[in-house]
Design goal:
The structure holds two protein chains of two kinds.
Chain A (H helix, E strand, L loop, with lengths): L5 E6 L2 E6 L4 H7 L24 E4 L6 E2 L10 E3 L5 H16 L15 H9 L17 E2 L4 E3 L9 H8 L6 E4 L6 E4 L12 H5 L5 E3 L12 E6 L8 E7 L2 E7 L12 H5 L14 E4 L2 E4 L2 H15 L3 E4 L6 H15 L3 E3 L23 E5 L4 H4 L1 H12 L3 E5 L4 H9 L3 E5 L6 H4 L8 E4 L6 H11 L12 E5 L1 H5 L1 H9 L2 E6 L2 H4 L5 E4 L8 E4 L5 E4 L10 H10 L9 H12 L41 E6 L6 H4 L12 E5 H7 L6 E6 L2 E10 L6 E5 L9 E5 L1
Helix pairs in contact in A: 8-13, 8-17, 8-18
Chain B lengths: L18 H6 L4 H7 L3 H10 L12 H7 L11 E6 L8 H8 L1 H15 L3 E6 L4 H16 L7 E6 L9 H8 L23 E5 H13 L1 H4 L10 E8 L5 E6 L4 H8 L9 E5 L19 H6 L8 E6 L4 H15 L5 H18 L5 H14 L7 H15 L1 H9 L33
Parallel strand pairs in B: 1-2, 1-4, 2-3, 5-8
Antiparallel strand pairs in B: 5-6, 7-8
Helix pairs in contact in B: 2-6, 2-9, 3-4, 3-6, 5-6, 5-7, 6-9, 13-14, 13-16, 14-15, 14-16, 15-16, 16-17
Classes of the chains: A alpha/beta, B alpha/beta.
């Protein structure tokens, strides 16, 4: 890339050199001058110049100009409110007009104390009001969804929310209605604002017009702490701030990592924190004493765990969730593998390292010319933010191609495009390699199913080298984490196993089949590291104190009984793992905004790739069934009442061609049959789905398999 | 008095809505002539004719055309968009042009399209103009069937009833199917317009003036009216005047000639109180300004704007506070709601004017009224904010004593006798616009 041409501009008598065409707001910032804004937000598209907060005087222009819509040109001389009376008057006018109908209910407003309108009024606004008429009023608050409340009186109509909905998430559900002073924000046809990314509008709102219902009246900004961490709900690993008050997580905000999440969060990551307070949260260790459970002290629990482990010896199998930290997975591995020679594990998913050769930040998707999405599972259900990067790429002119599997033609196109990106939710069949995506400007991403499946696999492998010998029968099954506990395959193993120890958060998931239950913790309650789908190692931090002891501390005490040394401190455990598989990076250097390790040349990629190809489905009549785990599902989501409306309905997605051939219209009730099972589902037509494939959320596909018949 | 008509020529004598009739007076002959010329030469001709936009801003059409990048420098197709969203109170010229000489307008569109080498013409017509829409659509279909379009296409699109969509960038958003709100500029439409492509946006009358330039030739055409801005304009004369109507006259005709010769003077022999020279948005003139020639530069030099050449005559029955309130209610109702000063300021002005008119106002309210005008002026995203205060501020400035009497005498000095009859339509048509009315249930 060529270096951009530099131009010299003067802002408030400070001369500064900036790249030509840089926005004036950013250019002024480089000169150390603030141009205040409300509606300006470069992440949601081009500036609209609506709020008029950024009015500045530009030499040679008679009228005040909206700074947000200007770009730096050589020789430009700009005066802001600091040095221009005219600009100061303009800004004061804007604030006066904004406040004319603003309710000024700051004392009871959730935004109070962290409100740009409050802050800018304090700095630039008039100190008094000349408005002596009744203010405009509206019904309030309006629940535009179970998650978001809208206060139209506080709204300053900056259109950030409607622009996000229209131009970033592209759901088009938030709109402005009416005109002039009667303009209001609304949802289209007053339907609930449903979508994967709705909560972002709460953060974008520069006033208290869009507030989070779960956070409403929960805390004031001066009595909270924001803990910088990383979301543990999916393999993207969005950077978050967990807001805590009195030791409890009260909300989750984005902590913009420009390479990973661009400052956006999905609603699962934003609103799932309520699972920490779930009614069936496990607090004390439990031992099965049929027909019920008895509470144990921790000493008794360790005693019992030791007994079960010693009894089973090496006939232990460990089922992992992919939500453990690297440190926890390593500690488990070290205890069981080094201490007992129990090498057998059920990893949450097959993970390979071959894509490390095509590694790039997720943000690289946005600048691609060609994006090929391979596999039948919807990207947004596995790694929601990736979907936003793909949408951004399309808005920038990229072509997006969806395909079930690779073809020679796709390979050619990927090879010939200057900037090509491959996104794979299953097996790429070697496409990334044959298309040469390790060249500059190209990249390939594999979307795992679990948040830290990669890190867990790394850590488990780092704990020992021996090959597992799968014990038959299983003496002891250790189930680590709620996702593993919810997995039907793990449940089936538990039925066969002689004894079961489960570590988890929720009683309903592990009772009544586990013999010993140890309370677990959430990613919001742990310190440690996660590896995201890019292969980026990120720090997660304990935001709130768990109701039970830290799992690593428990494992450390348990390991001592087997004379295995495990530090109770994640930093020390990490250093051990890092020396083996992360190049010895010290814990302290993982950082709050983690960098991406360089690409690994294909010849040096660690280990073999397990291959995660789609299960071969016999050819035959009917359509090929693809089931997937929806984003809004899983143990945490199930425990948040406000998220229930986001869960997918009983729908079947059909490709347009198939629907047309079968005479099925969108919204119609259809019957889906296979192997004697027949389900009644609502049809939805999809543009992305390959012909010959139907797609159903797994929770609505019970009993269906392989190929299915669909009829109206 | 010049007899030359260039826009409505023949429309009173013949039914020019019919293609055959239009052809008998040489219709579409100028298109043929223009198509025989190089596109650059078409632009040059319009430039040399010094044709200035009749929609309000008076921007030279030839210059606007030359700002459209040539085909080899375009990244997307170019468009001609005719602004037929005539909505300024007092203006009704475009409606007459489209109803009586639609083919001349279409011919102008096609000449302009040839000039900027575009194959797509969109006509955005005000939604309330139903008859005009039907007449124009029939003319377009007739011309299409006759093969006149060649490789060009003309689409007539109806607006949905928003004044703001007469603002060119809001018009483009509306045409694209979005909420009609102005865009920040630059970039201007000739560079980035409809669907991001280079777009020539011109008013109906401007475009309908184009065929005459080719018919008369530049030399002949520029003999009409003042040198700086030659040609004719259709003045929409309304208000308290004996013979209201559209009068096509050379630019530079004086107010006195228009009102007293063509309009036969003030109705019922009443005294002239004020003249609005360019549609309800512009600063008002007083009777001592009757000799101002009605062309762009002269009106501006006299402190107002020719705008859309809509002249509203106000007689001595009118209370200027009421007139201001009426105008401001219109702008409040039509403010699109995008930028802060216009959205919030117009409502506040209405509240202040209501208070002054009902006699509850104080000197502080009057001072505030004037100050709020200044706080809106020059700070809004598009010109609507300025329009909303040009008028009211000029009423306060030029009729300050009348405003002051409202404050000092605790009410309207007309004692209920004042009348805006014939000047403007009543404001209760804005039904869905609760003004200062307090809390909706």
């Amino acid at each position: 890339m060529s270096t951009p041409e530099l131009v010299t501009i003067t802002v408030d008598e400070v001369e500064v050199q900036v790249p030509k065409g840089l926005g004036l707001v950013e250019s002024a910032a480089m000169a150390g001058v603030e141009i205040p804004v409300f509606c300006y937000e470069p992440r949601i598209g081009p500036p609209i110049g609506a709020c008029r907060m950024c009015l500045v005087e530009v030499e040679g222009q008679g009228k005040l100009q909206a700074g947000c819509t200007l770009t730096a040109q050589d020789g430009m001389v700009v005066r802001t409110a600091q040095t221009s009376e005219k600009a100061a008057d303009g800004q004061e006018s804007t604030l006066e007009f904004i406040l004319v109908n603003h309710p000024l209910d700051c004392p009871v407003c959730d935004k109070g104390g962290e409100c740009p309108l409050q802050d800018l009024t304090f700095r630039y606004g008039p100190g008094n009001t000349r408005m002596t008429f009744p203010k405009r009023t509206f019904d309030k608050p309006i629940p535009i969804s179970p998650l978001i409340a809208l206060d139209r009186e506080r709204c300053i109509l900056c259109y950030r929310c409607t622009r996000f909905s229209g131009e970033v998430s592209e759901d088009g559900q938030l709109i402005a209605r009416n005109r002039g002073a009667q303009s209001v924000i609304a949802t289209f046809e007053d339907e609930p604002y449903r979508g994967r990314f709705t909560g972002n509008v709460i953060e974008l709102c520069p006033v208290g017009a869009l507030t989070s219902t779960p956070y409403r009246f929960e805390a004031r900004p001066w009595e909270i702490q924001n803990v910088p961490s990383v979301c543990g709900m999916c393999p993207v690993g969005c950077n978050i701030s967990a807001t805590t008050r009195e030791g409890k997580v009260k909300r989750v905000l984005s902590r913009n990592h420009p390479e990973v999440d661009g400052g956006w969060l999905c609603d699962k990551g934003r609103f799932a924190y309520g699972h920490l307070q779930a009614a069936d949260r496990l607090v004390d260790p439990l031992r099965r004493a049929a027909p019920r459970y008895e509470e144990l002290s921790w000493d008794e629990a360790l005693e019992e765990a030791e007994r079960l482990i010693r009894t089973a010896g090496s006939r232990i199998v460990t089922a992992l969730s992919g939500s453990e930290t690297v440190e926890l997975a390593y500690a488990l591995g070290k205890l069981l593998r080094q201490g007992l020679g129990a090498h057998s594990a059920v990893l949450p998913e097959p993970v390979g390292h071959s894509f490390d050769a095509f590694r790039a930040p997720l943000s690289a998707i946005r600048s691609a010319q060609l994006v090929v999405v391979l596999g039948d599972e919807p990207v947004a259900e596995r790694a929601p933010i990736v979907e936003l990067w793909i949408k951004a790429a399309r808005r920038e002119g990229a072509e997006i191609v969806h395909a079930s599997s690779g073809t020679p033609e796709l390979e050619t196109r990927l090879r010939e495009a200057e900037r090509a990106v491959l996104i794979v939710s299953g097996d790429d069949g070697g496409l990334a390699t044959t298309a040469g995506l390790d060249r500059d400007g190209c990249a390939a991403f594999r979307l795992p199913k679990t948040a830290n499946g990669r890190g867990v696999a790394d850590a488990w492998a780092a704990a020992a080298d021996e090959e597992p010998e799968n014990p038959e029968p299983i003496g002891l099954l250790i189930v680590s984490g709620d996702e593993a506990a919810a997995d039907p395959n793990v449940r089936a193993m538990a039925e066969q196993a002689e004894t079961v120890i489960a570590i988890g958060m929720f009683r309903r998931l592990v009772a009544p089949w586990a013999d010993l239950i140890l309370p677990g913790t959430s990613y919001l309650e742990r310190d440690g590291t996660y590896v995201n789908l890019e292969g980026r190692l990120q720090r997660i931090r304990r935001a709130s104190i768990p109701p039970a002891p830290d799992e690593l501390a428990v494992l450390s005490r348990l390991a001592a009984r087997f004379e295995v040394e495990i530090s109770p401190y994640p930093s020390q455990v990490f250093d051990e793992v890092s020396a083996i598989c992360y190049g010895g990076v010290p814990y302290g250097e993982v950082g709050e905004q983690a960098g991406l390790p360089p690409r690994v040349p294909a010849s040096q990629v660690r280990g073999s790739d397990p291959g995660t190809g789609p299960e071969a489905t016999a050819e035959g009549p009917g359509l090929r069934l693809v089931t997937y785990r929806p984003l809004f599902s899983g143990p945490a989501v199930e425990r948040i009442p406000e998220l229930q409306f986001q869960r997918p309905g009983p729908e079947v997605e059909l490709a347009r061609d198939d629907a047309q051939r079968l005479g099925i219209a969108s919204g119609q009730t259809v019957y889906v049959r296979s192997n004697g099972t027949s389900l009644e589902l609502r049809a939805r037509l999809s543009r992305e789905l390959a012909p010959g494939v139907v797609r159903i959320p797994d929770e609505h596909a019970a009993g269906l398999e392989g190929r299915v018949e669909v009829s109206g | 008095m010049a007899a030359e008509l260039t826009v409505l020529n023949g429309a009173r004598e013949r039914d020019l809505t019919k293609l055959d009739e239009y052809r008998t007076i040489g219709g579409y002959g100028q298109l043929e002539r223009a198509r025989g010329m190089a596109p650059e030469a078409v632009i040059e001709t319009i430039t040399n004719a010094k044709l200035r936009g009749r929609g309000g801003a008076g921007f030279a059409m030839g210059r606007k055309m030359s700002l459209v990048p040539p085909p080899d420098k375009r990244r997307s197709p170019a468009y001609v968009v005719a602004n037929a969203d005539e909505s300024e109170p007092g203006a009704f010229k475009d409606r007459e042009i489209m109803r009586t000489a639609p083919h001349r307008f279409v011919e102008g569109c096609l000449i302009a399209a040839h000039g900027i080498q575009s194959r797509n013409v969109f006509i955005y017509i005000r939604g309330e103009y139903l008859t005009e829409y039907e007449v124009l659509s029939r003319a377009v279909e007739e011309a299409r069937a006759a093969g006149i379009f060649d490789d060009c296409d003309v689409v007539v699109h109806r607006g949905a009833g928003a004044y703001i969509c007469g603002e060119e960038s809001a018009l483009l958003d509306s045409l694209e199917g979005k909420r009609g709100q102005p865009r920040p500029r630059p970039p201007f439409p000739p560079v980035t317009g409809l669907y991001g492509g280079p777009t020539l946006v011109n008013n109906v009358q401007t475009i309908a003036s184009v065929p005459a330039i080719f018919e008369l030739g530049v030399e002949e055409y520029t003999r009409i009216g003042p040198e700086s801005a030659p040609g004719t304009v259709v003045y929409s004369l309304s208000g308290n005047v004996n013979k209201p109507g559209n009068y096509e006259l050379p630019l530079g005709t004086t107010l006195r000639e228009l009102i007293f010769e063509h309009g036969h003077g003030v109705a019922e022999g009443r005294a002239l109180k004020a003249i609005i020279p360019g549609g309800s948005s512009v600063p008002v003139f007083t009777p001592n300004q009757l000799d101002v020639p009605l062309d762009f530069d002269s009106v501006q030099a006299a402190g107002s704007f020719l705008g859309s050449a809509a002249i509203i005559v106000v007689d001595d029955r009118a209370c200027m506070v009421q007139l201001g309130l009426r105008a401001e209610k219109f702008y409040m109702h039509e403010s699109c709601g995008k930028c802060t000063p216009c959205r919030e300021g117009t409502r506040w002005l209405v509240q202040l004017l209501e208070r002054i008119e009902t006699g509850d106002g104080s000197q502080r309210d009057l001072d505030l009224l004037r100050d709020v005008c200044d706080r809106i002026l020059g700070k809004s995203l598009c010109a609507l904010g300025d329009f909303a205060v040009y008028c009211v501020a000029s009423y306060v400035d030029k009729f300050y004593d009348e405003f002051k009497r409202h404050v000092e005498e605790g009410g309207c000095p007309y004692g209920g006798e004042s009348s805006l009859d014939g000047v403007v339509a009543p404001s209760d048509q804005h039904t869905h616009s609760p003004v200062a009315s307090p809390v909706p249930a």
